[in-house]
Amino acid sequence: xxxxxxxxxxxxxxxxxxxxxxxxxxxxxxxxxxxxxxxxxxxxxxxxxxxxxxxxxxxxxxx
Length: 63
Description:
Elements: H1 6-15, E1 25-26, E2 41-42, H2 46-60
Parallel strand pairs: 1-2
Helix pairs in contact: 1-2
């Protein structure tokens, strides 16, 4: 599974100033019919990740 890298890659993107990130998500990625299931973040994990990314963005921008 590559989903373990989602937060690290998103934080790196935020650190260099991207205006947004695209994160694939699914309610149950391990049982998704999509071939991207192993790369998807569970939907339940998105709110906390977005809060951390927004906080990191404020720090990266010196706000």
